[in-house]
Design a protein that fits this description.
Layout (H helix, E strand, L loop, with lengths): L7 E2 L1 E9 L4 H13 L5 E6 L8 E9 L10 E6 L5 H6 L1 E10 L14 E5 L1 H8 L3 H20 L3 H11 L4 H21 L5 E2 L10 E4 H11 L4 E4 L6 H14 L11 E4 L3 H13 L4 E5 L1 H6 L1 H10 L3 E7 L16 H5 L9 E3 L4 H18 L2 E7 H5 L1 E4 L18 H5 L47 H18 L7 E3 L7 E5 L4 H13 L5 E4 L2 E2 L3 H8 L3 E6 L5 H10 L6 E5 L8 H14 L11
Parallel strand pairs: 1-8, 2-5, 5-6, 6-7, 10-11, 10-12, 12-13, 13-15, 14-15, 18-19, 18-21, 21-22
Antiparallel strand pairs: 2-4, 3-4, 9-16, 14-20, 17-19
């Protein structure tokens, strides 16, 4: 039976339900990239378990010529390759959507839905006839279903073939079998499966955008930011950031004449050792970082406090995941905001950068090292699994070759020789930032004892209350100085004057953009402010003051950004309404728009409708 409905072109969601370790990842990525090669934006998300193989894994592809890159919610075409998750996968399909499945074994009617159209293909039978080796049967089964989908959706065969050719360049013996499997799937679908009302058509909506993971972009930012030392301990979802840094360094950080490496990368015995190495390198004048996730941040607390109080530059890339404890290692959250803002015991406040996409991961990954040196303090770059481990379209990365690193206040040998007064914790400019020296700057002057205990302005041990208060107040002045140095928030004003606003940050951004458009279409208008860093500048306080009600959208249970806003901006909590999503999946536009619309209805906000002339 063929569909009589007009096709939905370049605007739908396909989700693959597979078994981890089945070799499906490369085939599913091939599917997504082939659509992108046709000029249609895609936003794939890999939802995978924390074990090596055997558990369910999903790969969701948002196809959207309009350019929305957040999760929409719902599925239009489910590729159900995992019997374990059949019922769950079936329930996720939109009414009128499609279920593509392996029909080699008959299934009872009770396993289907009347409002979901089925596309059965005997994949196992086809593979058993074509291949003798069990592993080949599984691997080529994935390519065969990609071939079938390409026929059903109208994906150009040449684009899929080009991608297969690129994947197996230098491995020609694998190229022909994969092309053959692709066409086996296409031929079967064209002959036996009905037409469907989902279609891909060539467009020109990708333009110059690039496709990469946030972790790789952040690692490249570290290279451009001058990092020469990385110390890390493997932890999902941050490991690929350190691995990408190593790849980038092998390409860019070897002396062209001698071939000698101009960097050091250490896989430490644990997270505590890794941050200790980073602080030691930063004290010695190197630009150093570690990459970790929530459990690593928990282990690093005491060393982070040392770097804050002794004022040593360090950069920490925190690729957040579901917590607490081991939590959900392969799911995404924004749940370490409070833990990083006030990391360590005692009174601390730390700089955080909040990138929204791979381009900002690159930019902030580089900027973090300037900020760490300028402020002489740890700086957190707060990614999460959704940004870090998923490939995403973004604007091309740019770098200004005229930029010079900002090493901050470093007293030179000449200044020391001339008798300039050096106090390691002496604030001579009123900005809270003291001068430091690098080890070995002068044979007799500029040395000091680095300690985590209380000291006076000249780094001499002191337990005197006034010395402690003087030092702590100076650290607050430094934090105030940071407000003018960190990335400023971005404002998206509503199309109509409104007293309602919304604040959001990080990976929530793509879903938020779509949700705002959906709310506009309902006549619900909100000014939107994307926070890009902590500490908050005056723009954030002013935004809250200018609105009667402000929604704060974030991906954690305890409204952590909202708590920071209340604490740091001295805001009445009643004015900030939390919109919280924390099940470990990336937040959707439907969720945001639905929650805000419901809250505004409860507040008796009247939708502003367009007047039809």
């Amino acid at each position: 039976m063929s569909s009589d409905a007009p096709p939905r072109i370049n605007d739908f969601v396909v989700k693959f339900a597979n078994v981890n370790g089945s070799g499906s990842a490369s085939a599913n990525t091939l599917f997504a990239k082939s659509i992108m090669r046709m000029g249609v934006p895609v936003s794939p998300r890999n939802i995978f378990p924390s074990n090596i193989q055997g558990l369910p894994t999903w790969y969701e592809v948002r196809v959207c010529e309009a350019g929305y890159l957040g999760r929409r919610g719902g599925v239009d075409l489910m590729v159900a390759m995992n019997p374990q998750t059949w019922d769950k996968d079936l329930a996720e399909i939109e009414s009128g959507g499609y279920l593509f499945y392996d029909s080699s074994k008959p299934l009872p009617k009770s396993k289907f839905r009347e409002d979901v159209r089925t596309l059965g293909m005997p994949l196992t039978e086809i593979c058993n006839r074509a291949y003798g080796d069990p592993r080949e049967r599984q691997l080529f089964k994935n390519i065969i279903y990609v071939g079938a989908l390409s026929a059903l959706l109208g994906i150009e065969t040449s684009e899929v073939e080009k991608l297969i050719g690129e994947q197996y360049r230098g491995k020609e013996r694998l190229l022909e079998p994969n092309i053959k499997a692709l066409h086996m799937g296409r031929d079967f679908a064209l002959e036996h499966l009905p037409r469907i009302d989902l279609a891909v058509r060539r467009a020109d909506a990708v333009g110059e955008k690039i496709f990469l993971e946030g972790n790789s972009a952040a690692a490249l930012g570290a290279v451009y930011g001058g990092a020469t030392v990385a110390a890390w301990y493997p932890i999902t979802p941050s490991s690929s950031l350190a691995e990408a840094f190593a790849r980038h360094c092998r390409k860019f950080r070897h002396d062209p004449d001698t071939g000698k490496a101009r960097y050091a990368i250490v896989q430490a015995e644990d997270e505590l050792a890794s941050i200790g190495m980073v602080i030691g390198a930063g004290w010695n004048g190197a630009r150093a970082f570690t990459a970790t996730s929530g459990p690593g941040i928990s282990l690093m607390q005491e060393f982070i406090g040392l770097a804050y109080f002794a004022e040593i530059p360090a950069v920490i890339f925190n690729v957040q995941r579901g917590g607490p404890s081991t939590g959900m290692p392969t799911r995404t959250q924004q749940a370490d905001i409070t833990a990083c803002a006030y990391a360590s015991h005692g009174d601390t406040k730390h700089v955080m950068l909040l990138p929204e996409d791979p381009k900002e991961c690159f930019e902030m990954g580089a900027q973090a090292f300037d900020l760490a040196d300028r402020l002489q303090t740890p700086v957190f770059v707060m990614l999460d699994l959704d940004i870090g481990m998923n490939e995403r379209l973004c604007d091309p990365l740019e770098w200004d070759d005229t930029l010079r690193y900002d090493r901050g206040k470093v007293m030179t040998r000449e200044e020391l020789e001339a008798g300039k007064d050096f106090g390691r914790y002496l604030d001579v400019d009123g900005d809270g930032i003291a001068y430091r020296t690098y080890p070995g700057t002068h044979s007799a002057r500029g040395a000091y004892f680095t300690r985590g205990t209380t000291k006076d302005r000249y780094a001499r041990y002191s337990e005197a209350g006034p010395d402690y208060v003087d030092n702590m107040q100076r650290l607050l002045r430094k934090f105030e100085t940071a407000k003018a140095l960190v990335p400023a928030p971005r404002l998206r004003p509503a199309a109509h004057a409104t007293r309602s606003g919304v604040i959001y940050y990080g990976s929530t951004s793509p879903a938020m953009h779509e949700a705002l458009d959906q709310l506009d279409a309902q006549g619900l208008h909100l000014d939107a402010l994307r926070v890009r860093a902590f500490p908050f500048g005056d723009e954030v306080s002013d935004f809250i003051a200018d609105h009667d009600q402000v929604f704060v959208v974030e991906q954690n249970r305890d409204a952590q950004l909202r708590s920071l806003l209340v604490n740091e901006c001295v805001v009445d909590p009643a004015r900030l309404t939390p919109i919280l999503h924390f099940d470990g999946t990336p937040i959707t536009a439907r969720f945001i728009a639905g929650e805000i619309a419901q809250q505004m209805k409860a507040m008796n906000v009247t939708p502003l409708r367009k007047v039809v002339q």
